[in-house]
Amino acid sequence: MEKNDIIYIAGHRGLVGSALLRLLKEEGFSRLLTRSRSELDLTNKPAVEEFFARQKPAYVILAAARVGGIAANNEEPVEFLIDNLQIQNNVIRAAFENGAHKLLFLGSSCIYPKHAPQPIAESELLGGPLEPTNEAYAIAKIAGIKLCQAYERQYGANFISAMPTNLYGPNDNFDLAKSHVIAALLRKAHEAKMGGADEVVVWGSGEPRREFLYVDDLASACLFLLQNYDSPEIINIGAGQDLTVRELAELICDVVGFEGELAWDRSKPDGTPRKLLDISKIKSLGWQPKIPLREGIARTYAWFKAYCA
Ligand code: GFB
Questions:
Q1: Between helices 15-26 and 215-228, what is the axis angle to 10°?
Q2: pTM of the model
Q3: N or C: which end of the chain has fewer CB within 10 A?
Q4: Ligand 1 mean position, distance from CA 70 (Å)
Q5: Domains of the chain and CATH, by start
Q6: Does 210 sit in the ligand 1 pocket, CB within 6 Å?
Q7: DSSP state of 283
């Protein structure tokens, strides 16, 4: 990967894409290609074809997707399935047809079976039924992995797929109906503190376990894979440790400085009981996470206060 290669970051305004854009700029990559959703609708096949035919990116990072937390996934399976299939089909095909050297497809830890052995190794893919709350999103992501592998098998394309664990950081979505748990609890704890409320409502039982990776660590892993990994086999990216939702909520309240109680809304789903990724494969290649959870949450809270509060 040369510093003057044309690199297209699809989804550069999102949590993942914006972190990649920051990192690639810092590293001196000078021809970074981005388009906002109003400039290029990735679900529009002719528009995507025209964009690739004109720009001919050498590297493509597919960080554009319809994403959301457990509620959005559970309530809008149609959009999660269709939009993600369209975006990835359009971008992956156009990348191949316009001679991209390499494409990085980003999946998710929810592609693994609900009851996969922990920590979850890459070999668990398609080993059992999925978690129902995010089955539509997971099916779309699995289709993306299989399309990249098919391009490699049939045409020799260097299209790789990475599976990040749950992510958080600056530019996350803090809208409570769509957000993932860290963004949601940061907002709730902040608003409770500012409003003098005596409790914060947390969804579910507090018992599910989750692993969280700060998005700058994810960006560094993606750059590492673009530079060092050329296999169609999927590869996990995670933090290597997890905690319960209850422990997470307590940590977030501590970072925010909210001293009231936690209240549990058990009418909301818990989702999958645990999804800790086995990251021994990427570690053995030489990458590891750097930003501890508490520090990442503090940085995210600082960003939230600056831009969203
Ligand atoms: O982050 P989250 O929405 O997604 O929820 P998943 C994680 C856990 O936090 C669940 C609990 O057990 C939630 O019930 N939780 C507690 C909350 N309070 C809240 C809250 O206020 N908001 C939210 N959102 N959760 C998603 C998938 O699953 O993970 C996606 O739906 C994707 O497909 C993503 O894979 C990474 O970890 O359950």
A1: 60
A2: 0.96
A3: C
A4: 4
A5: 6-172+211-242+275-293 (3.40.50.720)
A6: yes
A7: H
